[in-house]
Amino acid sequence: MQKVLLIVNPKAGKAKSKKYIENILINLRNLGYKVDLEITTIERNAQKIIEEHKLEDDEILIIWGGDGTLNETLRGLQSSEQNAKIAFIPKGTTNDFGHSLRVPFDGLAVSKNINNYIKKEIDMGTIDDLPFNYVVSFGLFSKASYQTSRKWKNRVGKPAYYINGFKELFNFKPYKVKITLDDDQVIEDEFIYGSVSNSKYMGGFPVFRKQIVNLNDGKFEVLLAKKPKNFFSTITVVLKILTGNLNDAHITFLQASNVKAEFPYQMDLAVDGEYGGKREKIEIKNHQKKTIYLVP
């Protein structure tokens, strides 16, 4: 009998997992799976659960949670040197990666249809050898993704991020950053924002709607926003990024497999929407088709 490890973050999104779990278990068992259910806590997140669980060769990981829970999953697989096919039930606040994968947001869809899903190999990133799922960012709006309280996110949803992000506009200072792409292209300037991503969406917005984004081409999308002359120009640049209009003299869009960044001091980073620590130098690598997802 094939096994499933179902990991549920009960606080993800609107925190409505309880009313779904029983039906998910019934559906999976009706399809012939043996299911182990694990609920995440602060002390025992998805990474620790996977590290403690010996996955069988054909065992499937089903993850109920947000992009941060998925990040913990990748770190658990790497640290325990395990591989698994992942089925993702996106239940976070923005669910950027879920949108990019085009997986169903219906809480029961995976448990009903998983036998009909196909394997899709997706690129995985590492920042200084630690895996991440879809984005590393710095600068304007990056802090909003992890500084917004869980209670506020569950109550308000996406607007909670936008309100906090908007506040940053009034006291934000640009950073002098040196970016090296694939060891042969160097960009050095004052930036208000920077991201290295493998996603069509960021912060709930279709930032790359006019660009071709392939999740398994071995390339990251690198987005940099230079310091505008004044406050109103800054607002214009931000709105262009959020609406996917990257045709602006202040905005640089490139693709690369290896990205190095040097900051003037230890910079706060956001990694998959969570706090990524302070770094003065980082190296981000693309590991092509490293992760396997089950998708419709």
Short structural description:
This protein is α+β, with helices and mostly antiparallel strands and 296 residues long. It has helices at residues 18-30, 46-52, 67-79, 96-101, 109-113, 144-147, 150-156, 158-168, 231-242, and strands spanning 3-8, 34-39, 60-65, 85-90, 118-127, 130-132, 135-139, 175-181, 185-197, 220-226, 251-256, 258-271, 274-295. The chain contains nine helices and 13 strands.
Can you walk through the features of this model?
The protein has 296 residues and is α+β, with helices and mostly antiparallel strands. It folds into two domains: 3-116, Rossmann fold, CATH 3.40.50.10330; 131-288, Tumour Suppressor Smad4 (Sandwich), CATH 2.60.200. The protein has helices at 18-30, 46-52, 67-79, 96-101, 109-113, 144-147, 150-156, 158-168, 231-242, and strands at residues 3-8, 34-39, 60-65, 85-90, 118-127, 130-132, 135-139, 175-181, 185-197, 220-226, 251-256, 258-271, 274-295. Strands 1, 2, 3, 4, 5, 6, 7, 8, 9, 10, 11, 12 and 13 form a 13-stranded mixed beta sheet that branches. A hairpin with a 3-residue loop joins strand 8 (175-181) and strand 9. Helix 2 (46-52) packs parallel to helix 3.
